Amino acid sequence: xxxxxxxxxxxxxxxxxxxxxxxxxxxxxxxxxxxxxxxxxxxxxxxxxxxxxxxxxxxxxxxxxxxxxxxxxxxxxxxxxxxxxxxxxxxxxxxxxxxxxxxxxxxxxxxxxxxxxxxxxxxxxxxxxxxxxxxxxxxxxxxxxxxxxxxxxxxxxxxxxxxxxxxxxxxxxxxxxxxxxxxxxxxxxxxxxxxxxxxxxxxxxxxxxxxxxxxxxxxxxxxxxxxxxxxxxxxxxxxxxxxxxxxxxxxxxxxxxxxxxxxxxxxxxxxxxxxxxxxxxxxxxx
Length: 286
Ligand code: NAP
What we know:
Blueprint: E1 4-5, H1 8-30, E2 35-41, H2 45-61, E3 64-70, H3 76-88, E4 94-97, H4 107-113, H5 125-132, H6 141-152, E5 161-165, H7 172-181, E6 185-189, H8 196-200, E7 205-208, E8 225-229, E9 249-252, H9 259-278
Parallel strand pairs: 1-9, 2-3, 2-4, 5-6, 5-7, 7-8, 8-9
The structure holds NADP nicotinamide-adenine-dinucleotide phosphate (NAP).
NADP nicotinamide-adenine-dinucleotide phosphate (NAP) is lined by residues 142, 165-168, 170-172, 189-193, 196, 209-211, 230-233, 239, 259-260, 263.
């Protein structure tokens, strides 16, 4: 069986080209560019790298970006104060609070403080609720990226059994809802799931969102499975041990170069949409 590579770089490039056109068009019409404000807490090297990549991507597509750094010893209230200022600042189009923030801080409270129209990373509980109920909301960026890849490569998910391994608020849970809304039959597995392999064996689509390198092996999967590996572990390693899966998979996202680049592109896409919304265009994509 031929195994198709679901190349995220190709998907991200197409998205970026579209955003660049919209950003230039926006500038021609309104004389300014949408602005993404990123908040980073502390000096986590991975977070610093992600923020740099996101700001570089903004530059590539013609969006403005600023970074606000908060000391890791600051309080939740300090983060909330920054978010509230950005909420009220008419020059700010979108707000990204880079996850994770310091352990002693209440991340959920901070995410929920971002006003919905600026929640371009889709982390707010109300955004999640609206997304789940097919309302107008920005989608959580990585789940949105996964759906974009599925769409781009015309992967048929209706009536298919999708097994999502992981249930985090930014990844496993929202992607499960998006798959469900596109008529997949969804099973959500997590650390307390008994006999994970029993579910994986019946999966037409596997979404790996575990955060454990090479966790899912080929001998747990059935022939023809589509593998979406959202995992990104130290050393550029995914959650799926892809070498053991190549004989089984009909398609897979590589790590790196799969879900990652599309996640950044979706963040920019939603920032662009937020700016367009403010000018009275139709709200947020479903
Ligand atoms: P997370 O918050 O740590 O969640 C991990 C999930 O995996 C949890 O729901 C956990 O279950 C589950 N899990 C842990 N051990 C398991 C086991 N033995 N069997 C089944 N499920 C198990 O991680 P996350 O933030 O969702 O991230 C997951 C991965 O995606 C990481 O590698 C991360 O780097 C990557 N990621 C990539 C992008 C991107 O843009 N490409 C963005 C975000 C995250 P419990 O709920 O029971 O603890």
